[in-house]
From TrEMBL:
GO BP, sorted A to Z: cell division; DNA replication
InterPro entries: AAA+_ATPase (IPR003593), IstB_ATP-bd (IPR002611), P-loop_NTPase (IPR027417)
Keyword Cell division set for record: yes
Keywords: Cell cycle, Cell division
Matching Gene3D superfamilies: P-loop containing nucleotide triphosphate hydrolases
Protein name stated in the entry: Cell division protein ZapE
Keyword Cell division: yes
Residues in AAA+ ATPase domain copies: 140-270
Length: 291
């Protein structure tokens, strides 16, 4: 199945009348083998004129022009660059395959087969507002602290915001599971045989400076002096730079107040809006009932 991306991005590198891509120049092809979430594919409205392209789809997408006796951008040039740029942003964001290329419009709000859960709609509305007001200079964006039970859609919603911001505005985003992608990545830099040996500062700076950061599964990390300090430094640095941080957790925010993370708590209170998801485990919808 192909998804027309004209609602998800302002890019218009295709033919304006093309019904397939809505003028974007590429589409999202879903159910691609080896990928759950699909892949971007050049639309035929760009590709059909590109049969002379000597670049064969490889950068820098130029063709030789006889009349001018020089290389000129192929008709596919801008569309391919846009695709490559988006793919690069998605890859750098480290969004897991399951949640890649998912948008606000592709989320199930429950109309079809069960009553929409109010808490999910509140969170979805909040996300919608952040995404649509992002470029408005008068809008002061805020992060969220989204918590709730397993399968309630926290990781999905957080990643949807990243995808939307990438496709709409080309924002530099990053997704990180608190343990695997952040704390362990930093701990690895102390190992002499690690590829990232000695790069602690570099990695920390990357997480601190990216425009929008998702910290997934906040609260699963062990309480330790090292973990608390590294998380405090990260949150504090994003707090000072007024960067947007989206956290997901299985626990309410005030659980951190009394713990070693008290100083993190007070910053998160200011940087984020706490939203609780009360929906049932979505994963169970597809698990046949046992008798
Ligand atoms: N409203 C929804 N529409 C479509 N898919 C959904 C929705 N809610 C959840 N899902 C899907 O259900 C699965 C579980 O959602 P998700 O991974 O976001 O849960 P979670 O709240 O992060 O759970 P955990 O606490 O276990 O990490 C995912 O495959 C997700 O894509
Ligand atoms: Mg999750
Ligand atoms: Zn097209
Ligand atoms: Zn071409």
């Amino acid at each position: 199945m192909k998804m027309n991306l004209s609602e998800a991005t302002a890019i218009r590198e295709g033919s304006p009348q093309c019904k397939n891509c809505g003028g974007v120049g590429f589409t999202l092809v879903e159910n691609v083998r080896g990928s759950r979430s699909g892949a971007l594919s050049l639309c035929f409205c760009v590709g059909s004129d590109c049969n002379k392209c000597e670049s064969k789809g490889q950068a820098p997408y130029l063709v030789f022009d006889q009349s001018q006796n020089r290389m000129l951008p192929c008709v596919c040039h801008n569309a391919r660059l846009s695709v490559r740029n988006l793919e690069q942003l998605v890859e750098n964001a480290n969004i897991p395959a399951r949640y890649r290329f998912q948008f606000l419009s592709t989320i199930d709000l429950g109309e079809s087969n069960h009553d929409p859960d109010l808490s999910f709609i509140v969170a979805h509305d909040w996300a919608n507002e952040l995404v649509h007001n992002w470029a408005d200079p008068a809008f002061v964006p805020q992060g969220f602290y989204l918590w709730g039970g397993t399968g309630s859609g926290k990781t999905l919603l957080a990643c949807v915001i990243l995808n939307e911001l990438i496709f709409r505005y080309g924002v530099k985003c990053k997704y990180a599971k608190v343990n695997k992608d952040f704390l362990s990545a930093i701990r690895d830099t102390y190992q002499t045989d690690s590829e990232t040996h000695g790069q602690e500062r570099f990695i920390e700076r990357e997480f601190a400076n990216v425009d929008v950061l998702v910290i997934d599964d906040f609260g699963v990390q062990k309480e330790s002096e090292f973990n608390n300090r590294k998380l405090y430094d990260l949150i504090d640095s994003r707090y000072e730079q007024e960067k947007i941080t989206l956290l997901t957790s299985n626990h309410p925010l005030d659980e951190w107040r009394e713990r070693g993370q008290g100083r993190i708590y007070s910053r998160l209170m200011e940087m984020t809006k706490e939203i609780q998801l009360k929906c049932p485990d979505y994963r169970m919808k597809f698990t046949p009932e046992r008798v």
